[in-house]
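F.,

This is the one I mentioned.
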């Protein structure tokens, strides 16, 4: 039985089918298709919890932080070493199987989760102080285990939180109480195809707009009004590219603002103003799974990396005869650098990331290896972030390493086993000296501030 049929039966049985209000995003269908598809989000409800937002400073309001760079700009002084027991655990919460990362704003922690027993998708809001639940928005979603469920990070702006579930349903809720504001079914409305192992694309909020890449037959990228979910523009998809696990990144170049996305067949840049296609290239594509997002550098450069022997590629945008033309600058073989899962970060002109053999690597702007962790550090597919001259990196089995970055060599400062599960792959979040990390089934909050 398909997911749509399951939802229809659930709505009929629950009696909610007669009372659901019309929500923005439910009456648009791809050209050539009739209206009538079901958006499971509309069958959901907000369930209040007992906790309240914490009176704590600090924010990590979405994928890779406030500016999607993976680098924290906060002024909190962080500890440069830990005791034998490692950083103090402040709280822990059981979560559904997956790799979805947390976002933090206003003393709240937001997480896209899945309840296997209830067959429900859940956008959860927790207190940053103790991890207790403030609210959750739940709705029926039939899914099977496929190397975990969740893979996305919510995005917060003001009083709204936007998230995408594993099957490409977008949820926008009130950040304080969880009431649904609007929802979009990217599969039904824009012809998106759910990627293998479910979607990993994290919503982008840019000012008063939310940006998504359905990569379907009705649109490659779309921009919607953040307050209402109403469509502002959509980009054509002339090459018929499909959705990947990569996320959309914003870029400024030559006085133009654009959004860059790695689709199934290459990389594209679209105008932020109206969604017009500015450029595309087939120089970069990964046959199995495109996961890391484009890393934006200065002077119109983009660093692209991937696993499955893809290696990496530096692109440079140039203006030729009134057109934007992307040119390959250099390629790196996978043994030099190729990030399977997490996008590299840029600090003071250096690129930092984990290559396919699990070593943490620092590259100069020309792609030359400055240092590698080598035998001093095996990180597998774990996540990482940089802050205040320090790097935090998890390995697959929940060992957290602290090292200097930037630095001229891999200088390990501390290491501790902070998680006891497996597949510690979810993106980290750092807010006010509190580091949130997760493995397959548990989310924990660590105190990494200096004392």
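My design for it:
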């Amino acid at each position: 039985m398909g997911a749509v049929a399951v939802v229809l039966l659930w709505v009929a049985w629950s009696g909610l089918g007669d009372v659901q209000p019309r929500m923005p995003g439910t009456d648009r269908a791809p050209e050539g298709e009739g209206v009538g598809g079901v958006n499971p989000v509309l069958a959901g409800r907000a369930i209040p919890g007992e906790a309240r937002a914490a009176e704590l400073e600090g924010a990590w309001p979405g994928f890779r932080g406030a500016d999607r760079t993976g680098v924290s700009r906060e002024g909190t002084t962080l500890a440069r070493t830990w005791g034998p027991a490692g950083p103090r655990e402040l709280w822990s919460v059981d979560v559904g199987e997956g790799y979805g990362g947390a976002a933090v704003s206003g003393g709240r922690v937001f997480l896209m989760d899945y309840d296997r027993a209830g067959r429900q998708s859940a956008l959860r809001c927790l207190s940053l102080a103790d991890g207790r639940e403030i609210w959750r928005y739940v709705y029926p979603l039939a899914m099977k285990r496929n190397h975990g469920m969740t893979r996305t990070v919510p995005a917060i702006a003001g009083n709204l939180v936007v998230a995408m579930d594993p099957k490409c349903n977008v949820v926008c809720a009130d950040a304080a109480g969880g009431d649904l504001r609007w929802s979009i079914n990217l599969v039904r409305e824009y012809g998106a195809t759910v990627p293998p192992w479910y979607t990993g694309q994290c919503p982008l909020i840019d000012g008063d707009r939310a940006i998504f890449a359905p990569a379907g037959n009705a649109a490659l990228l779309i921009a919607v009004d953040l307050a209402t979910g109403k469509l502002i523009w959509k980009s054509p998809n002339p090459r018929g590219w499909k959705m990947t696990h990569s996320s959309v990144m914003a870029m400024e170049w030559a006085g133009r603002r654009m959004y860059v996305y790695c689709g199934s067949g290459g990389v594209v840049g679209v105008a932020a103003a109206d969604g017009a296609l500015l450029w595309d290239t087939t120089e970069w594509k990964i046959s199995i799974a495109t996961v890391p997002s484009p890393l934006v550098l200065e002077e119109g450069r983009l660093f692209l990396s991937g696993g499955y022997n893809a290696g990496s590629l530096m692109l440079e945008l140039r203006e030729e005869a009134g057109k934007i033309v992307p040119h390959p600058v250099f390629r790196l073989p996978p043994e030099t650098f190729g990030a399977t899962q997490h996008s590299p970060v840029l600090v003071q002109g250096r690129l930092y990331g984990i290559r396919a053999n699990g070593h943490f690597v620092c590259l100069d702007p020309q792609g030359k290896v400055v240092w590698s962790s080598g035998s001093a550090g095996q990180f597998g597919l774990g996540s990482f972030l940089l802050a205040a001259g320090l790097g935090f990196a998890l390995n697959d089995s929940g060992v957290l390493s602290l090292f200097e970055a930037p630095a001229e060599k891999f200088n390990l400062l501390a290491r501790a086993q902070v998680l006891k599960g497996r597949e510690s792959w979810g993106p980290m979040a750092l807010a006010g000296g509190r580091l949130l990390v997760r493995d397959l089934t548990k989310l924990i909050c660590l105190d990494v501030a200096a004392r």
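The chain is about 5% helix and 40% strand.

Talk soon.
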